[in-house]
């Protein structure tokens, strides 16, 4: 889909068909992406005209079938994943021994389906088929085929009615560069066709309940009996995994969070919360294309989204677009959010940072100050303003803004000023001294520059001394602040010794100035992070 069209139309969640009478009345379908023993080894797999191997296409097709089933709102689905701990436990409970790397045969799939309370198992398979079209000068085309097979599960895990269908996968070329893992349009179209055939076949009676009953004659036969299975609380399991994932994100472990959240989405495919958190995890892991895909799926499939969640999805998409370099698209989304709610601090902050990136400093400053006027305790807005003023060379203005801020904001703002200023002061001192010793800089100019730098260093000592962390701050934050205070004092003392050396010519004070500067650099190694 064209990105501009998506920006204009994709932000509203899709309107879905009327739900069936109750969640318990819906058949549960367990989907298996499977080779069915028909694929050669991976090294011998050929690539079709769609650019995919059979193995890759099978996995994409299984996802497409699952999403199309969910979109029709007739059944609930589970997508089998051999690495999922839930399925591992279910296999163990069903007494199915699966060797490493082996695929479930039909008997094992039936046992697993019964164990998780499924009413149907659905296998998805794709292969390359020779299209017997050619001339004396052209070879037959090798095009992909999509096959789906359904088996009803009877009480006790016995197989019931079977249904099977297949369809060619049309190759499409719309000129767009698609992200890795995106479902090709041809696969999506073929999956939709097979899903509709499946719903019109084995699940015909269930599909009828999604329509207005006054438009249909009475059903010809009763619904298939519901297979009793062990009770499984998918909602509780998904909630638990989301909690663990948030802990992993707090520890800056997005990869571990992604593994948990993909399972949570499997259990609750139509809820916004797990998909939104998964998209955030992808973004933190620098996997922007996957974050974009998850946001789009949330906007398409998820139901019951609150206005706040819709806003969060749009804001997150805008930030991902910034990472992908689409500044125009991101700006449109941020402005859209602010048009809907001028008090949306996250959107205004994102717009301000984007303007700063684009070099529109005056416009960025206006946004930062609007945030601070409404929310003086915003650390991000305070640091953004400091970064802007420091880049402009207005250090005095940055210090003034910091001292005028709320105590809770002063420490992160002062920390940023120190980190961005102190190392530069030290580097200029080293350069000036080398130039003076090589007689490329006069003593008078060197002394004047040192005096100015000494004043700056004393300003930093004073600034940090009056911007201690909050009493509730962690021990690591307090320790880092103390190291910065020590580093600032070492830098100021180094400049004082350098001034004395230039005034008296005593070699000992010159050596002391170098020693203090080296100690400053040592302390800065553990004091660089501008923690909040």
Key features?
532 residues, alpha/beta, five-stranded mixed sheet, 20 helices, 5 strands, disordered N terminus
Please tell me about this protein's structure:
- The protein is of the alpha/beta class and 532 residues long.
- The chain has 20 helices and 5 strands.
- Helix content is 58%, strand content 9%.
- The two termini are 40 Å apart.
- The model is unreliable at 1-24, 39-44, 130-140 and 173-178 (pLDDT under 50).
Q: What is the residue-averaged pLDDT?
A: 80
What would you call the shape? elongated
Separation, N- and C-terminal Cα atoms: 40 Å
| Poorly predicted runs | 1-24, 39-44, 130-140, 173-178
Q: Tell me the number of helical segments per DSSP (H or I, 4 or more residues long).
A: 20
Level of helix content? 55-70%
Strand content: 5-15%
Give the topology string: H per helix, E per strand: HEHEHHEEEHHHHHHHHHHHHHHHH
Quick synopsis:
This protein has helices at 3-9, 54-72, 85-93, 106-115, 185-200, 204-208, 234-250, 254-267, 272-284, 288-301, 307-323, 327-340, 345-357, 361-374, 379-391, 395-403, 407-437, 443-465, 475-504, 507-524; strands at residues 28-33, 76-79, 120-131, 141-154, 158-168. By secondary structure, it is of the alpha/beta class. A five-stranded mixed β-sheet has the order 2-1-3-4-5.
């Amino acid at each position: 889909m064209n990105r501009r069209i998506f920006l204009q139309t994709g932000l509203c969640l899709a309107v879905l068909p009327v739900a069936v009478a109750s969640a318990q009345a819906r058949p549960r379908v367990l989907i298996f992406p499977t080779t069915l023993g028909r694929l050669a080894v991976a090294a011998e797999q050929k690539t079709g005209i769609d650019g995919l191997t059979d193995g890759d296409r099978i996995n994409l097709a299984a996802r497409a079938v699952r999403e199309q089933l969910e979109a029709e709102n007739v059944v609930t689905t589970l997508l089998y994943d051999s690495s999922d701990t839930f399925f591992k436990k279910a296999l163990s409970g069903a007494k199915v021994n699966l060797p490493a790397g082996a695929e479930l045969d039909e008997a094992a799939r039936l046992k697993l389906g019964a164990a998780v309370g499924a009413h149907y198992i659905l296998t998805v398979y794709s292969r390359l088929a020779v299209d017997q079209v050619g001339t004396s000068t052209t070879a037959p085309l090798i095009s992909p085929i999509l096959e789906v097979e359904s088996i009803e599960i009877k009480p006790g895990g016995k197989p019931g009615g079977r249904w099977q269908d297949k369809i060619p996968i049309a190759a499409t070329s719309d000129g767009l560069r698609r992200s890795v893992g995106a479902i090709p349009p041809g696969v999506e179209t073929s999956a939709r066709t097979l899903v509709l055939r499946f719903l019109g076949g084995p699940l015909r009676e269930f599909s009828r309940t999604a329509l207005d009953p006054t438009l249909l004659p009475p059903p010809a036969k009763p619904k298939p009996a519901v297979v009793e299975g062990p009770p499984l609380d998918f909602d509780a399991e998904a909630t638990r995994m989301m909690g663990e994932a948030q802990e992993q994100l707090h520890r800056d472990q997005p990869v571990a969070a992604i593994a948990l959240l993909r399972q949570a989405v499997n259990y609750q495919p139509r809820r916004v919360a797990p998909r939104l958190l998964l998209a955030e995890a992808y973004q933190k892991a620098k996997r922007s294309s996957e974050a974009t895909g998850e946001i789009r799926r949330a906007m398409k499939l998820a139901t019951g989204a609150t206005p706040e969640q819709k806003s969060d999805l749009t804001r997150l998409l805008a930030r991902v677009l910034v990472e992908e370099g689409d500044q125009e698209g991101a700006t449109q989304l941020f402005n859209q959010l602010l048009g809907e709610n001028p008090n949306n601090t996250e959107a205004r902050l994102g717009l301000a940072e984007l303007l700063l990136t684009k070099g529109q400093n005056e416009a960025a400053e206006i946004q930062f100050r609007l945030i601070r006027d409404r929310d003086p305790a915003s650390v991000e807005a305070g640091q953004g303003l400091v970064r802007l003023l420091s880049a402009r060379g207005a250090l005095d203005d940055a210090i003034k803004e910091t001292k005028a801020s709320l105590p809770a904001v002063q420490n992160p703002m002062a920390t940023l000023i120190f980190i961005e200023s102190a190392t530069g002061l030290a580097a200029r001192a080293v350069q000036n001294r080398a130039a003076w010793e090589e007689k490329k800089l006069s003593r008078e100019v060197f002394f004047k520059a040192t005096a100015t730098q000494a004043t700056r260093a004393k300003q930093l000592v004073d600034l940090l001394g009056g911007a201690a962390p909050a009493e509730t701050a962690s021990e690591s934050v307090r320790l880092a602040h103390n190291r910065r205070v020590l580093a600032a004092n070492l830098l100021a003392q180094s400049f004082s010794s350098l001034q004395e050396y230039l005034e008296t010519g005593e070699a000992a004070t010159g050596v002391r100035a170098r020693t203090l500067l080296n100690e400053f650099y040592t302390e800065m190694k553990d004091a660089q992070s501008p923690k909040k």
